[in-house]
Amino acid sequence: MSIYQIKVTLNDSQPTIWRRFLVDENVTLSKLHDILQIVMGWTNSHLHHFIINNEFYGEPEDDEFGDMGIRNESRFKLNQLVGGEGFKFRYEYDFGDSWMHGLVIEKILPAEKKVHYPVCIAGKGACPPEDVGGVWGYDTFLEAISNPNHTEHEEMLEWIGGSFDPKHFDPEEVNARLRHPRQSKEEEQAYYEPLQLDHRIHERITVWSQELPKPQLDLIESLAVRRDMVTLLQYFNEKHPVGTQSTGNLQLKAVREVCARFVSPPVLDEKIGDKVYKLRSEEDVFWLFYLHVLANTGGLVIGGQSRIWKLTSAGKAFLELPSPVQLGLLLVIWWHQEDWRIAFPVSGLDQGLPHDFRKITLGRLLELKADKSVSFEQFADELIATTRFTWPSEDQTFVQDIMRSVIARLVVDPLTSFGCLECKHKTSTRYGFKSKRLAEIRLTQLGKGLLESL
User: Fold this and answer.
1) Contact 152/159 with Cβ under 8 angstroms?
2) What value, to the nearest 5°, has the Cα angle with vertex 426 and ends 421 and 431?
3) What is the percentage of the chain residues whose pLDDT exceeds 90?
4) Which domains are seen in the chain, by residue range?
5) Own/partner pairs for 165-173, CB < 8 Å, 24+ apart?
6) More confident of the two residues 348 and 245
7) pTM for this entry
8) Would you call 43 exposed, middle or buried from its count of C-beta atoms within 10 A (0-12, 13-18, 19+)?
9) What is the DSSP-derived secondary structure letter of residue 92?
10) pLDDT at residue 75 above 80?
11) Which of 293, 347, 419, 448 has the fewest CB atoms within 10 Å, i.e. is most exposed?
């Protein structure tokens, strides 16, 4: 077996961005595409093709009108198409930004024992961000982030997630990914497992969903938590958004696009007086952040820092489920898998919730009579006492109010979004300030059945 030493260069990049790697001569062009994505640092979120001896090789289904004569890249091995040392060919990625790469076979070498192929042995320069506008757009981007006085300086920094080093290249990072080229499939399986931890819950949800009266079915169809989750998953499936480099959150463009599709689009830019506070991060939009985290925890999506957010097999299956089962599974993820502290992210919960907090809370909820209102403060105070929930503060003046707020944010608000609880608020004056406070909660018939399935 021979090994090809290949140098790939991003055409027209200044300074030049390039990589040198070793690959088995028998690699298919389809596999070589995967390797190039990893070696260069792209996220495989756009179309591509190879140009070898004036022939195009790629995925035939991407040739929508059949006028490019695309040959199936999975059927051709590299050694079938390229010549000896010095042979050159091209690889184009993202037909909009048109990232054209030049490849040259520098050397043909014998394979070495104990060497894992493919392997990257050298390179220079960071991979440009996806959707930056090609080589020329990348130049403008670099100018903007390096110049605080540039009109697009802050906007570009927000778009990239805070920072970007155009010189960054780490062959160890590249080779770690090359050693696990199919990791995403393994991760999909790992992320799918949480929904399979207890098949009895899934069975109970399925049985429960088959006996629902029409009013409850209509309510489920209308609930924003289910509809907006479907919207988010469909957006991922359609757009393949790339996470920011720093946190993996959605980029601001994606945040705005997906929020515009929600049942009740949240306010993203807030004006207070003469000042406009613009959206800075996905985490500024709690509803979207909540749904995204829920989907990630439940294994419906997979992605991360500078990676494409896309659906897993579980996510695709979720979209095909009946609405009641969708709602039930989302509640299972929230109740059994998610860290509830995302709903109240303050330091007082750093040590976590009391032992068996969820179990005790579920039991207390199931003691409520469906369609009968109860005092929220009484419910919260009893739950605080039963779970032995405490709040770390030397000044205990407002601690009980704080803990009630925690119960509202961690228990009542999520269950209200799932249609399990209905709330009644009252305006009152406390500590000299008028405020709208949660006065009563009521367990719904839908909630009774859903919570029993847990």
Assistant:
1) no
2) 125
3) 65
4) 2-126+165-181 (3.10.290.30), 182-338 (no CATH), 349-445 (1.10.10)
5) 165/126, 166/125, 166/126, 166/142, 167/125, 167/126, 168/126, 169/123, 169/124, 169/125, 169/126, 171/120, 171/121, 171/122, 171/123
6) 348
7) 0.60
8) buried
9) E
10) yes
11) 347
